[in-house]
Amino acid sequence: MKLLNNWRVIILLCLTLGLAPFLPEPHIVGKLRWLSSGGNGMAIMDYFDVLLHGFPFILLLRLLIIKITKTNGA
Question: Which positions, given as ranges, span the membrane (predicted)?
Answer without folding.
Answer: 48-65
